[in-house]
Design brief:
alpha/beta, Leu-rich_rpt, Receptor-like protein 7, glycoprotein, repeat, eleven-stranded parallel beta sheet, 35-stranded mixed beta sheet
Length: 1271
């Protein structure tokens, strides 16, 4: 660890002052004339600054006193010329080397301009104490010093300073230097470059210095480990080996040094367990092993006679609880345990530490109350920040701590009121109580003589304080830093009050209930203090404070979330020192700038969520963060914008109305990490260079009008973590080069026209957490069968809905999705950048959960979902899904799944939404699903489930819509379960033949065959029979209050339907709220009959709901969120020219050119014979469209007993211009007297409303409701 320069300067000043106070003074009578002459000669030869000298300047001829000189018996025995600013003058001819009796020489803290130590110093053979520390000497230490065999103290140390050359001891090395210094007791070589391994330097010391008591070799580039020979230095009392690379465990033999008083091993790469018995050395007073992060241990029990005075274990991995016996350390004055892993409560015995001066327990896991420090009257520093302390702080009589200078209780859970006595401590300089739960009013004694107080920092932010801000806070004359943000302070405050604090430079009153008046008479004058930081966010400001224009030193300005209107003034861009400007969430409408460039030095500019419009303002040339999102800018981006993004890291233009192409010059932004251009109207292709920006971490182009393909060319150095290209018109396939983005966490390409299969080539993107590809044209198998271990074990959100996938991934792949099996915590997916500022980009994704389309602005890592709805996936639901214990949402609706629902789904204890509707699931509902206590949405409708609906606490909350379209009974359905219903429940496997039922069945089967066979073989007879049945039901059912809709299922007989069942029996139950017309109700797209009770057709309503993004009915507020795909109705062999009437294999009508004649707009092909039959026997109604062939719907008589189907108007001209396929798939009919084009658009344009979508009716009148905006 290297100590900063300013700290060394302070230390030098302290040491220098110490030397000045210990001056030696020799009298003129003690010195011989010859020695006086030598001293004057020495002075004349030295180069020093007389204005800084305190000793040499007093050496004059005949002087009665010679400061710095010690004499014994008329001979000079000591010279102390420390801190005399000597820069030169000591050379081989210097008179310094003429003092033969000199025993002590001190040249410390001078400025010898990087000269080497003169070897002539060895001529002073009587020397016992040599101190050349921090004198400015550099280079190799002369080996001649080894000849000073009488030395007992040698100090060649120097404070490390970057860029300054140091002394070195390499050739000769340490062994050669100390080989003859057997009398040496104190050795100080701090900062000398020795660069030796442990065995070498330990061996040199132990073999040559048997009397060594003080060893100080910190920052000497020593390597470890500490050799066992080191224990031979049995007289050691002080060991300082800090700031080296020892990389060793702390030797146990340190505890055997019986005279050890100080052990300092900070920043030495120590690891392993610290020996507890070192704490119990009977002579140890100072222990410092700080900044060894791999060193761990715990505190022992302390004896009552422990001499410990200072203990520093900061930034280590010491842990455990503090022993109760810590109160026995009665001599302890300094205890530093910062950034360790201690836990538990702070012992109450701390109150016995009456000598304590400095206490730092910050950044641990301490809990419980703050102990009383009332008896520690000498305390100057109490630092307990970043713990989990609770309770109030009233146990300490704060008025007794008259020497307290710093109280730091930040980031705890302390509560109660803040004692007013804190603000009356005479020496208090810093009070930092932020991020706690303090409440109540801040009370100050108005009668205090504030002029005598030293408080310069007061931070009470992020608490629950309320009431008005005391005016007395602005009476502390030394106050420089005041932060009251994020509290509940209320009332009004005139900004002019801050003029009373002339030294105030930091002011933060943000996010309270304050109303700050910035429009006072004095608010524009220059009497305000020179601020560096002003934060008045969410302070109900109505106007910009005028005094800000006279703040040349202002660096940080936050006025966000206020009510400021008008223009951003010109002077904002002329503040030369302004680095941070946040004006977001206001009502600014214009920006006054000096076109074409902003010349300010801004690093961060945030203007998001205002009403700024028109042309985009210029970019600050040095900004690293620019956010213009959420405004009304509507221009195109300048083509040369890249030149102003040369140092930009974050750039967002989202949620505006920008148009045109994305300029390629953006790719010139070499440091850009976040680029968000989402929710605009950009057109054209994505610039190919955009994916090749090496620094880019987030690329968000969501919801634009981009087309073309996703560019190839993602480089091997790709660092993308978020790629969002959703809701555009992109085509093609997922680029192969995207596999180079191995750090990708969020990939959203949903709602495009991407083709191809599942992106198995992204197997190297092992960080993937969010994969959204819904609403594309992807097909094939889900997952990658050729990969044994799925690379995406962090996947938490998978949305592949509305594609054309056909098979599920193998179970072995599903079992590797570990994030869905384990809880990964409650932090969010986000990208941190500009780490020192705490800024980050928050990922978003749109999911369907609990029946709602939600944009997750903060993606919790605990949120997991799977949505594979609206595909063609067949097969059984995998049992492996039951292992996804952290899954919150599961949507597999609208597929072709079959078989039973796995009981293992009952293991999904946190599941909130389960949708398995519109599949072919069979058997009963597993009772295990009743264990899903968090389930808020359940949809099992339109399957082939049967039997009793399980009862359970959560199941009781679901309505009948969750179960319709099955053969279920019991609550909430109105159908009670009979024995026959219970018999539908699958029983245990086994073979048992009941011949009575078999014979009976054969008899009925034979009879049915005789009756039905003629109709199977006779096409016209079958058609005649079907028409008569339809006509009968159309007359009879409305009398009973039912409605009857004829569904086109001829294709079922021709064998061309994909989802046709053989069972066509009808069931009628007048007691039910809703019923399906056929037993094959698992597929709502192949029904032949619909029957419901009086009122709106429940079948139609359910069909409407099924084509929305979630269930809930046509009259729900959220119906505007529509799905992208509904199963198309079948209409015969595709691409053939064969009559599509059931039972007919004749050619469709053709003209003389051989082209098909299609008499109806629904594209229903028909032969001449069937066409004549339809005109004669079916009122001229098209069998496929159920619409008249004739243009005038009133023409044509109606035969006896025929029912009028109601007049229907033709589609508007815009529909007529569509292709035949578009007309057929977009058709919407209305039962009223007019065609509602808005409803037609609402039903088809966004939902792709394939099929015969019908509007429900009430009492014969069509229900009409304005379409709602899509979210």
């Amino acid at each position: 660890m290297r100590i900063p320069i300013f700290l060394w300067l302070v230390l030098i000043a302290i040491f220098s002052s110490c030397f000045c106070k210990n001056r030696t003074l020799a009298s003129g009578q003690c010195l011989s004339l010859s020695d006086q002459s030598l001293l004057l000669s020495l002075k004349n030869g030295l180069h020093f600054n007389a204005s800084l000298s305190t000793k040499l300047v007093e050496w004059t001829q005949g002087s009665s006193s010679w400061p710095g000189v010690t004499c014994v018996g008329g001979q000079v025995t000591g010279l102390d010329l420390s801190n005399e600013s000597i820069s030169d003058g000591i050379n081989s001819s210097s008179s310094l080397f003429s003092f033969r009796y000199l025993k002590s020489l001190n040249l410390a803290f001078n400025r010898f301009n990087s000269m080497e130590i003169p070897p002539q110093v060895a001529t002073l053979s009587s020397l016992e104490h040599l101190n050349l520390s921090n004198a400015g000497f550099t280079g190799q230490i002369p080996v001649e010093i080894a000849n000073l065999t009488g030395l007992t103290t040698l100090d060649l140390s120097m404070l490390y300073f970057p860029g300054i050359s140091s002394l070195k001891l390499q050739n000769p090395n340490l062994r050669m230097l100390v080989r003859s210094l057997a009398e040496l007791k104190e050795l100080y070589l701090d900062g000398v470059n020795i660069s030796a391994p442990g065995s070498e330097w330990c061996g040199a010391l132990s073999s040559s210095l048997p009397k060594l008591e003080v060893l100080s070799m910190s920052n000497c580039y020593l390597n470890g480990p500490i050799d066992a020979s080191f224990m031979n230095l049995k007289s050691l009392s002080v060991i300082r080996l800090g700031s080296n690379n020892l990389s060793t465990e702390v030797p146990d033999f340190f505890a055997n040094f019986s005279s050890l008083t100080a052990l300092r091993l900070s920043t030495s790469g120590l690891f392993g367990m610290f020996p507890q018995k070192i704490f119990q050395v009977l002579t140890l007073q100072n222990l410092d092993v700080s900044y060894n992060s791999l060193l761990h241990g715990s505190l022992p029990e302390f004896s009552a006679d422990s001499p410990l005075r200072a203990v520093d274990l900061s930034f280590t991995n010491f842990s455990g609880i503090l022993p109760y016996s810590i109160g026995n350390l009665r001599n302890l004055s300094r205890l530093v345990l910062a950034n360790c892993s201690f836990s538990g409560q702070i012992p109450i015995t701390m109150t016995k530490l009456s000598q304590l001066v400095y206490l730092d327990f910050s950044t641990n896991n301490f809990s419980g109350p703050v102990p009383s420090f009332t008896n520690s009257g000498n305390m100057t520093q109490i630092i307990l920040s970043h713990n989990s302390l609770t309770g109030e702080i009233i146990s300490t009589r704060w008025e007794y701590l008259q020497n307290l200078e710093n109280l730091d209780l930040r980031y705890n859970s302390l509560e109660g009121s803040i004692p007013s006595s804190l603000f009356a401590l005479p020496r208090i300089q810093k009070i930092q109580l932020l991020n706690n739960r303090f409440s109540g009013h801040v009370q100050l004694n108005e009668s205090l003589k504030f002029s005598s107080y030293a408080l310069d920092t007061l931070d009470l932010s992020n608490n629950k304080l309320d009431g008005p801000i005391p005016p007395a806070l602005f009476r502390y004359p030394e106050l420089k830093y005041l932060s009251l943000a994020f509290n509940n302070f209320n009332g009004s405050l005139d900004i002019d009050v801050v003029q009373k604090v002339s030294r105030l430079s930091y002011l933060d009153l943000s996010c309270n209930n304050l109303s700050i008046n910035a429009g006072g008479a004095a608010s524009t004058n220059s009497s305000f203090p020179p601020f560096s930081t002003i934060s008045l966010a969410s302070c109900h400001l109505k106007a910009l404070p005028g005094f800000l224009s006279n703040q040349p030193k202002l660096m940080y300005l936050d006025l966000s979330d206020n009510e400021i209107h008008g223009s951003i003034p010109m002077w904002m861009w002329t503040l030369k020192n302004l680095r941070y400007l946040n004006l977001s969430l206001n009502f600014f409408e214009d920006v006054e700038t000096a076109e074409p460039n902003i010349t300010s030095t801004l690093s961060l500019l945030d203007l998001h969520s205002n009403s700024l419009g028109g042309k985009m303002p210029p970019l600050p040339p040095l900004a690293v963060y620019v956010d213009y999102s959420g405004n009304n800018f509507s221009s195109i981006i300048p083509a040369d914008i890249g030149k102003n993004l040369s140092v930009t890291i974050f750039f967002s233009l989202s949620k505006n109305s920008f148009q045109g192409n994305i300029p390629e010059s953006i790719c010139q932004a070499g440091y850009l990490q976040v680029l968000d251009l989402s929710d605009n109207s950009f057109t054209g292709k994505i610039p190919s260079c955009m994916v090749d920006v090496p620094s880019l971490k987030v690329l968000n182009l969501r919801n634009n009008k981009l087309n073309g393909c996703i560019p190839e060319g993602f480089p091997r150095t790709c660092g993308l973590k978020t790629l969002d290209l959703s809701r555009n018109s992109l085509q093609g396939q997922i680029p192969q080069s995207l596999s180079n983005c191995m750090m990708l966490e969020v990939l959203d390409i949903g709602n495009n026209q991407i083709e191809g299969g599942f992106p198995c080539h992204l197997k190297n993107t092992t960080k993937m957490r969010v994969l959204v590809m819904r609403g594309n044209k992807l097909s094939g198998q889900l997952g990658c069968p050729d990969i044994n271990n799925s690379p995406w074990d962090l996947l938490q959100i998978v949305d592949l809905a509305s594609n054309d996938f056909s098979t599920l991934p193998p179970e072995r792949c599903l079992r590797t999705w570990k994030a869905m099996q384990d809880n990964d915590g409650h932090d969010h997916l986000q990208l941190s950048f500009l780490g020192i500022s705490g800024l980050y980009y928050q990922d978003t994704v749109t999911v369907t959960v609990k029946g709602l389309t939600l944009e997750l602005v903060k993606i919790l890592k605990v949120f997991t979902s799977i949505d594979i709805s609206e595909n063609r996936i067949s097969g059984q639901i995998p049992n492996a899904l039951g292992t996804f214990k952290s899954l919150r949402l599961l949507n597999m609706s609208g597929n072709e799944l079959f078989g039973p629902i796995p009981p293992s789904l009952g293991n999904l204890q946190v599941l909130e939404s389960l949708d398995l509707s519109r599949n072919n699931l069979t058997d009963n509902i597993p009772p295990a699903l009743t264990n899903l206590n968090f389930l808020a949405l359940l949809n099992l409708s339109y399957n082939r489930l049967m039997g009793l609906i399980p009862s359970g606490s959560q199941f009781a909350t679901f309505g009948s819509s969750s179960y319709v379209g099955n053969m279920l009974c019991g609550k909430p359905l109105t159908k009670n379960c009979t024995n026959a219903d219970r018999a539908l429940v699958p029983k245990s496997p086994g073979v048992h033949l009941d011949w009575q039922f078999i014979v009976t069945g054969l008899g009925f089967g034979s009879g049915a065959a005789v009756a039905v066979a003629p109709f199977m073989m006779w096409r016209k007879g079958r058609r005649w029979y079907n028409n008569r049945i339809d006509r009968f039901l159309l007359v009879f059912l409305p009398i009973l209050g039912f409605t009857y809709t004829i569904w086109d299922d001829e294709e079922s007989e021709d064998g061309h339907g994909d989802d046709v069942n053989d069972d066509t029996a009808f069931q009628f139950d007048l007691e039910k709220e809703e019923t399906w017309g056929s037993a094959n109700s698992a597929d709502p797209h192949n029904q032949s009959l619909q029957i419901s009770a009086s009122g709106p057709s429940q079948r139609v309503e359910e069909q409407y709901a099924s084509s929305s993004l979630f269930t809930g009915g046509h009259d729900r507020a959220t119906r505007a969120h529509l799905k992208k795909k509904v199963v198309e109705p079948t209409s015969g062999p595709k691409g053939s020219s064969v009559c599509q009437m059931l039972g007919s294999d004749a050619r469709a009508m053709r003209d003389e050119n051989g082209q098909d004649i299609i008499p109806c707009g629904c594209d229903f092909k028909i032969c001449k014979e069937c066409y004549r039959d339809a005109m004669r026997t079916s009122d001229g109604i098209c069998p496929g469209f159920r619409e008249s062939y004739e243009e005038d719907e009133d023409d044509g008589g109606k035969g006896e007993g025929e029912i009028e189907l109601g007049s229907r108007k033709a589609l508007p001209s815009s529909v007529s211009n569509m292709s035949k396929m578009e007309r057929r798939l977009s058709l919407v009919k209305s039962n009223g007297n007019y065609f509602d084009h808005n409803q037609w658009l609402f039903e088809t344009k966004e939902s792709y409303g394939y099929g015969n979508v019908m509007w429900p009716t009430e009492d014969g009148k069509e229900v009409r409701e304005a379409p709602r905006d899509k979210q």
